[in-house]
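Hey,

The postdoc asked me to send both predictions to you directly instead of through the lab channel. I've kept everything plain text so nothing gets mangled by the mail client. Protein one:
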Amino acid sequence: MGTPNVQHSDKWSVIFSNIPGYVPTISDNTDMGIYDLYVKEMTFPDLSLELVQSHFMDYQINHQISKINDTLNDLSITFSLSEGLKNYYHIYDWIRSMRERKNVDNEKWFRLNLIKEIKVIFMDNEKRPVSKFTFINCFITNLSSLNLTNGIDDELRFTVTIKYEDHLLEVMDAC
């Protein structure tokens, strides 16, 4: 058996299940294309374990105390801004609606106006999926500002900060 390859930072993709209040149209190329295809950068959150220590005789003993989802760190995603600010607008509108307590998806409970899943697919060097990380019940808690400048023709980007309730890692068989 040979040595496995290393994972590269550009062999991944993101799939959003939904954006509350956003109903995709045919002109968006794919269902969530203005989100899935515009992701430029992602800061994958770390995972930590809290410990409490007890002391017995001359020993220090560690005990895990973390609950399943109490120490989950934020997910950060940077998007290219779509023409006409369409992908920015839908997130802006959702956050504004949440602040004004509007039920944008007509969910049974207002609290369920959230992104159901965000899937991050990691791929091998031949772009075959090898693992899938799923973030469940996601809320965008921050939408970054837009930095506009005159005389410079750079691609505009914005970043969102996301809190999630749970996550799953699934290793997939490469075909």
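Protein two:
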Amino acid sequence: MNDCSDKPDIYKIHKIKKINYEKKNYFCLEINDHEITNSDELGLFISDNDVIKIDKSIFVTKIIKNYVLTDYINLDLTKNYSCLQMNKNITITGLI
């Protein structure tokens, strides 16, 4: 099981931009103060009244400070997305 962190696993994406890096298309996400690492899976969503419905799932390819390069997907860049770090801080509560 992954260690839990005191930092949240939900991050506000300040800017999303399509880029070409080393002759390959990527999405570049600007995310401040994150603990995202290469190969992490991110779930993209738009917050709606504290309900999280993940619209798309992408994988991290490269990280350069506050810039996270991910898979290139078809995405509406006019919306304000946030992302959830899918492999971290997930708690399941139930009866045994």
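Summary for protein two, as requested: Residues 10-85 form one domain.

Thanks,
C.
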